[in-house]
Amino acid sequence: MKILVFADFHGSENALNTAIEISHREQPNKTVVCGDLFGWSSADKVAELVQQLDGVLYLVKGNNDFVTAQSFLPCEMEDSAIMYHFGRTLFFTHGDRYNSMRIPPMLKEGDVLVHGHTHVGRLQVYRGLFVANVGSLARPRDGAKSYMTIDEQGITLKLSDGEVLQQLNWQ
Questions:
Q1: Could you say which DSSP state residue 16 is in?
Q2: I need a labelling partner for 89 at 20 to 30 A (CA). Which of 1, 104, 142, 149 fits?
Q3: Do 85 and 3 meet the contact criterion of CB atoms below 8 Å apart?
């Protein structure tokens, strides 16, 4: 099982095209976009591009994803996505509501909180939780265009070319 994670496209067609290339390279079972999908480009073009991502698609609503733009999508944008893989709960959110400073109350030690919002990728263990910020391919605030994979080994933060920035193993 491999989960591919992106966030904070803000409607950038270039970043979405890069994400499509990454998804073809990574071959995920599931792909999660942790919000702020829409922005610069037309909503119908963004919706067309996001459908080209590989794997079962999960779309999480960000603070810049408005109802009118969401009507173009093939599936509903949710406030969060919750999965159970690798012996733990994975909670995907945008990051404006839940993040390392505001942990969802349902998570327990060893679980995973995945978010975006800050446009800076980072992996950490915080209060016994794995906390993963995916960063952004479109507008990284640290200059590192990043995405993330989650699999049986752990969480890996990568640059757009696949170079590993940071790895956090389950053990």
A1: H
A2: 142
A3: yes
